[in-house]
Amino acid sequence: MDMKRHYYEDVQLFTSGVIVFWFGAFIVFLALFPFVVKNYYVYVANYMAINVIVVIGLNLLVGYTGQISLGHAGFFAIGAYGTVVLMSKASFPFIVALPAAALVAALFGFLLGLPALRLEGPYLAIATLGFGLTITQIIGRIEFFGGRQGLHTPELTIGPWHLDTDIDFYYLLITLTVLLAVAARNLIKTRVGRAFIAIRDADIAAETMGVNLVMYKTLAFAVSAFYAGIAGGLYAFVLRFIEPEIFTLLMSIMFLAMVIVGGLGSIMGSIAGACLLSWMDLQLRNILSIPYVGLWLEALSQSYFSITGISNIQYIVFGLILVLIMLFEPLGIFGIWIRTKKYWKTWPF
Amino acid sequence: MLDFMQMIASGIAVGSTYALMGIAMVIIYKTSEVPNFAQGEMALISSFFAFMLLDQYGLPYHLAFAAALIFSILLGFFLEFSILRRAKEPNVLGLIVITIGIEMILLGLVSWKFGADPKSMPFPISPWESFAIGNVFVSQLEMLTLVVALIIMVILFVFLRYSKLGVAMKATQQNHIAARIMGIRTNRIMMITWGISSFVGCVAGLLIAPTTMQPFMMWDPLLKGFAAAVMGGMTSLPGAVVAAYLLGIIENLFGGYVSIEFKSAVAFAIIVLVLCIKPSGLFARHYIKKV
Amino acid sequence: MKKTGFWVLAAIVAMVYGLSFNVMAEEGLTGTEIHIGQWGPQTGPAAPWGAVARGTGDYFKWINAQGGIHGRKIVYHMFDDAYNPAKTMAGVKELQEGTGIFAWACGVGTSPGLAVRDYIRERKIPWVGPATGSSHWITPPDRNLFAVYPLYYIEAKALVRLGVEEMGFKRVAIAYLNDDYGKNGLEAARKELIAHGKKLVAKVPVELKDQDMKPHVMKLRQSKADMVLLWVGPVHAARLVGTAKAMKFAPQFMSTSTCSDFPLMMHITKGLFQGVITASFAEMPDSDLPLMQKYKKEVYEKFAAKDERWGVFYYAGILFVEPLVEALKKAGRDLTREKLIFELEKLKGFRGIGGELSYDIYNPKNGYKSRGGMREIFLVQCMEGGKAKKLTDWMRIQYP
Q1: What is the 3-state secondary structure (H, E, C) of C247-269?
Q2: Closest-CA residue in chain C for B216?
Q3: Which of A195, B176, B249, C311 has the highest CB neighbour count under 10 A?
Q4: pLDDT (0 to 100) of residue C8
């Protein structure tokens, strides 16, 4: 049923009409979304979309190329600062500043890719982690970038279009997210993507087959950093204010967790993972206002724990969800999806 | 010159806690290839356990610390047995996320129970009284930490090299399946590994806590310990210890002579340089992968 | 005359409107409720500051227990943002667009506050008492934003003056947290020393994640400072003082209101904090001011959670909203946002448990006068057992 008879079947973007239909339906849903929900959820969607962009980029690196990065908050920061500084100090228009900043991030990605040629596993993790920590220190040191006191973002306009509400920004973000997601999927189906996958599966074997390791490993880092840079530039406009302390190690760890929970080597998984974890990140603080459960937790705190620390329950729940997903489904959400699909395909057997 | 000596001394002093955390990371990594991000929080919960016994139940020091150490071993057993062992078809990245999850749970539990206010653990030795060697000052607590770190390192080194259990652990690390065939209960070995590692971490936590304790106190030692372990080769105990002391000294010298702002960051820059020259760290043999 | 007439008319219209339709006259306001929101980190590394938000909550509970304000109860919405601006923004939007918030109170932290500032300004929602002394809030000022916390700037000036003029210290050094808070203090100390014909002999940045303070103390010791300003948080201050003790370096330490919780500081330094001088913008915990005693007895002892501590952060949460409550009381039954702002601007020489506080008609050119809030602080020294000795009375410092 799934047999491929022709090379083009392997590289085509949409494998069947059904997928085209659902993709179209999804786009329509995204376009109508702001009209049916409260403005707050548009903000949440924006936040999710930004994480989706980073995570897709990071998945290209972690899931497809088999490298690891605990320093993506660094690229994210470069994108954010680059965009804001180019716009407010050099008065670049947004549509130029954003890709320019992302290219700077990509350049840093390329540089970080160089040590990655020799490192793997925990060694690479520490190297990238060091990068993430250092870059915010350096940014904080430079007064031109606002130092530790941070920077305010300028007004956002694209040509005649003035984006000042969440809904305006939502359309910009969603367009970019869809484009970047499709681009990532496309990239995977090309020669470059296959080279990435070959490196992931066995880098030495890939090299003997003629894959240029130097080029493709650094390219993977650069592409991944580019995605993070774009996302960072957009994030600055969600917050309208940036300072170095926002881009913490915790953020990098969260990005990595999103990739893995979503499912390594799957764009759909990345989207799902980023959405799930960022939603939890924003919404778990409301856990105490769930009827009954909240009261019960309060009583529990009163007698065994402390009321002042009660909000920390959200961390426990978050941690539990991470652990449970990974325990029962090592492939992440993508794995759950595959299993459900298989189940229905073979139903009732 | 005096300043230089003081910086070396301070570097060694701070290196001891890094060394303990580094050892703890290495022990787990050696058998399961997982960098354990929950290490710091495992130590945290054990030291807060000791704090609770001292502060709320008024136990004497020796009982409270002994109880905390036992608690830490049991915690290690429990986490391995009830969570990590249950992972289906585990892969390294999945296990990393599990350890991140455990980290959040433990951190949440500690902050929930004890609130966020900084605290100070009662301790028989004052953290702020110091010995003067000439004009170089080393605090009593740091001296104790140094001694404890060295003792633990020696014991573990001897234990892993010469005892039956240690050899079994090594076998488990080298080849899980072969070890099982030879009659080693690898599951049990893993559990013991987690116990030992948690114990070492707890010692580090107990030695950090007398200065000030708060839920986030183990982040920095964990990162530095992890960094030291990586620099030392991630599988070598002496490597981790030597790298930890190097890291401490470099940090202090850099802070003293170049820039105090980049003190923490420089450690990572140096690690990247070291790793570029020796990709498997200072003390591990480079493992050549076969296709 | 004309003005009064206008207000009477406005009041009648509001009442008729309120009676006949019984809908919200203004967002976040009903006939029986006033919705007030606040964010405060209850989790994460900044969680000790979360006590501010809890203090405010208990204060509102007390007010409600006394019958509320002109027949309206305060409905307090506090959420945890973990000091993460993205979460602050999420929470503010959710509450503002979901429940509807009449006014925002306090809000812990400079960067979370700066992230939501534009949003709150655009909707013209009153916001009283951001819980930091950053100069961001008044340069430039917003019409709807009323600062309460005295500027870090004047704390630094007062401390330097005391040290240099009265105690005769020659060499002043500073250890500052490398963020907005620390930079504010550094800048002010530098300027004040220049005015005295001096320079800082050492400027030592402390990173938030730094734990080992030996390199920092060595720098301070090398500079042979006889007075050291600690522009850091409580934990770093404790570590710095302790490490200095271990390295036999004993200058006069001075610190900010952030570290003025002496019982806590004495506990975490195991008694070494004795002798340290800090600035303070609120009465000390053991103050015998009647209002302070009243708050302790009636707010803290009746409404606080059992593990809450009567510390500076906790009752700062009360202090920051005192002007808001005062203005709400004065605004009367026919409340609107405009009226609240009007009443806040009329506050002159108001004093609760902090320094004297005045606002003025909005003036974009003079943020300090029109929106600066509290202008007074005093200096205290930590004595045995965490007791405080007042070194000065409330004092007023010029800004800038």
Answers
A1: CCCCCEEEECHHHCCHHHHHHHC
A2: C45
A3: A195
A4: 54
Contacts of C311 in chain B (CB under 8 A): 117
Token code pair at residue C32: 């029986």
Per-domain residue ranges of chain B:
2-277
Residue A232 pLDDT: 96
Torsion sign over Cα C254, C258, C260, C262:
negative
Closest to C57 (Cα-Cα) out of C323, C324, C303, C293: C303
Poorest-pLDDT segment among B97-101, C16-20, C319-323, C373-377: C16-20
- The sign of the dihedral angle between the CA atoms of B84, B89, B93, B94 is negative
pLDDT at residue A6, as a whole number: 75
SS3 call for C96: helix
User: Are residues B116 and C47, on separate chains, in Cβ contact within 8 Å?
Assistant: yes
> Is C93 in contact with A302 (Cβ distance < 8 A)?
no
**Using an 8 Å Cβ cutoff, are B271 and B261 in contact?**
no
On whether the CB atoms of residues B260 and B251 are closer than 8 A, the answer is: no
Residue C314 CA from chain centroid, whole number: 11
Identify the CATH class of C152-280+379-396: alpha beta
The top-level CATH class assigned to B2-277 is: mainly alpha
Residues C133, C139, C144: CA angle, nearest 5 degrees: 85
**3-class SS at C304?**
coil
Chain A positions touching B107 (Cβ under 8 A) are 312, 315
44-73 in B: which are within 8 Å (CB) of C? none
Contact flag C248-B132 (C-beta cutoff 8 Å): yes
Which of B16-20, B232-236, C15-19, C115-119 has the lowest average pLDDT?
Answer: C15-19
State the architecture of C2-150+288-359 in CATH terms.
3-Layer(aba) Sandwich (3.40)
Residue C15 scores a pLDDT above 60: no
Task: Look at strands A151-152 and C145-146 and give their pairing.
Answer: unpaired
Euclidean distance between CA atoms A214 and C284, whole angstroms: 64
ipTM surpasses 0.95: no
- Where does chain C hold its CATH 3.40.50.2300 domain(s)? 2-150+288-359, 152-280+379-396
Give the global pTM. 0.91
Tell me what the pLDDT averaged over chain A comes to: 90
Which amino acid is located at C28 in the chain? G
Q: How far apart are CA A59 and CA A223, in angstroms?
A: 11
- pLDDT for res A161: 85
